[in-house]
Structures are given as structure tokens and as C-alpha cells.
Amino acid sequence: MTGETLHVYFLGTAGALPTPQRNPSCIMVRRGPDTLLFDCGEGAQQQMMRARTGFTVDGVFFTHWHADHFLGVIGLIQTLSFTGRTAPLPIYGPEWVHDCVDGIRQLCRFNLKFPLEPVRMDHGSSVRYVGYEVTAFATDHGLPSVGYVLVEDPRPGRFDRESAVELGVKPGPLFGRLQRGETVCITRDGKEVDITPEEVMGPPRPGRKVVITGDTRPVHRRIKSVAVDCDLLIHDSTYDDAETNRAREVYHSTAGEAGDAARELNAGTLALVHISSRYTSTATHIRDAAKRFCGNVIAPTDLEMLEIPFRG
Ligand SMILES: [Zn+2]
Ligand SMILES: [Zn+2]
């Protein structure tokens, strides 16, 4: 489908430790009728209430199995069960996803009214939705971990109204059929003539692309083929550049490294997340990232929402 809305809700932007202002990791992506969660840290349900998103979730994608990324899913599952969900809930994640979902079932001593469906995601694994897909890529966080690219199908090219009229197509229903990719038959100079969509449509235009790295050292070189030209890059930015050595030791990234990734991937906007609790301001993070990337840099606060427009 083309023209669907695409919204990203930053429900949790904290590093490993929450702060009064920031919850642990949780990002909701709404694309048309679908709602996907990427990680589900502690307190995610209350963040969903505060952001007024509702609890309808079509799939949960985990980047790795550190507690700051998954503790919130247990409460969410209980709420969904109490409120009558019967549809299966797919739970995607790297190695150990089956163990973790078994663990959740063990912990949930209530009558779970819908199935949990664990699906292991490795580098290159994809989940297909109507109009887009979500593809996993391997990250570098000292344990099995993945990030995700959500990429829409290409949109049809622009309809060239003038060419259509010049070819003899009358404005009206035939325009719509050509735009939907159908060949139409018209009468021109007393003869029947076929007009193909290729004659009146420009080249296909790329869909939108959102990249979520999860916790990781920079991996932009290995993901260039899938992540280049993303509209939004949501990147681990646990530390500012004063802590480059620390970031390397604990398999995280600095804001400057996130800036490098955004530049290399030609991102539209760079969102810095997983901010360590040691920082009370993100001004230095933004400055460090902006030194390396001249595009739009943001450090969203919890509950911020971004609408992703089409480029061009
Ligand atoms: Zn984390
Ligand atoms: Zn982690």
C-alpha cells in the first residue's frame, strides 16, 4: 500500500538504568493499521497509556535479552490476556528467543488466553507485512543481538498527467487504472490503441526506511546494503564522546559514533537513544553527533513521537 502513515513513538529512551525522566528501551512503530514494538522495557504499559497509543500490538521485536529490553513484556502479556486478546502474539528475537518465551510462560501463573509465538531472527531474517518488511541484522553487543530495518515496498512512480492527455487519454477513470498499473485501451484517430502504465508513469520511488540498532558497537559498514538512505536511524548513543573507551569496553556506542553511522548511511534523521543515566542533559550528545553528521540530529525524550514523511 502507498500513502500509509508511519509514526515512531519513543516510549523508553534510557540506558541500562531508568531515570525519573527516562524509561528503559521501548520503541513503538505504527505503520498504517499495524503496531509493532521494538523492545519492551519495564514500565512500557504505562508509557503506552501516557502516549495514548492503546495496547493493540501485532508483534514484538527484541534486539537482545538484557533485562532493560524485555522486562515490560510480561506485564503487557498479562494485561492483553486480562483484556480478552485471543490472537497469537509473535515474539521475534535473536538466539534464546525460545528459551525466553518459555521462561515468560513459566513466570505467568495466570490463564494465558492467547498463544505466544517465538520466532528466532538472525542476520537477514525477515518478517513480511502488507506493504513493507522488517529485516534483522547482526549487531555487536557481546551476546546474541540484532537490530532491525523496517523498509517499505517501492511506491509507483509519479503519474505524468500531461503525457497521458497528449497520448489521448481522457481525464477520469482511465487515469486511475493507469496509476494502478493497468494497460488501458482508447480510441485515437478512429483506431483502438493500448496505452501502458510505463508510458505515463515515472520510475518507482523508494518507500520509507527506519533503522533501529538496539544496543551495539557501530555496525554501519556491515548493514550498508539494507540500511543506506534510511529516513530515520535510531542508534545506540549510551555515552558522549568523552567515554569512547568505556563505550568500546561495554559494547555500546557514543553519540559521535552514531553520527558516523548516520553520515555513512545517509540517514535523514538521527535519533540518539539508550542515554546513560549519568547524563542529565543530552546537549553534549547532540553536539558530538552533529560534528560527524550534518543532517538532522535529535535526542528524543520519552513519549516523543515522530511522523515520517515520504522523501520527495
Ligand atoms: Zn540496554
Ligand atoms: Zn544491552
Give a topology summary.
Layout: E1 6-12, E2 26-31, E3 34-40, H1 44-50, E4 59-61, H2 67-70, H3 72-82, E5 89-93, H4 97-107, E6 116-120, E7 126-129, E8 132-138, E9 146-152, H5 161-166, H6 173-179, E10 184-188, E11 191-195, H7 197-200, E12 209-212, H8 220-227, E13 232-236, H9 244-249, H10 255-264, E14 269-273, H11 283-292, E15 296-298, E16 305-307
Parallel strand pairs: 3-4, 4-5, 5-6, 12-13, 13-14, 14-15
Antiparallel strand pairs: 1-2, 1-16, 2-3, 7-8, 8-9, 9-12, 10-11
Helix pairs in contact: 10-11
Bound molecules: zinc ion (ZN) (2 copies).
Number of strands: 16
Mean pLDDT: 95
Number of helices: 11
Rg over alpha carbons: 22 Å
Bound molecules: zinc ion
Sheet of most strands = 7 strands, mixed
Helix share bin: 25-40%
The percent range for strand residues is 25-35%
Strand order of the largest sheet: 6-5-4-3-2-1-16
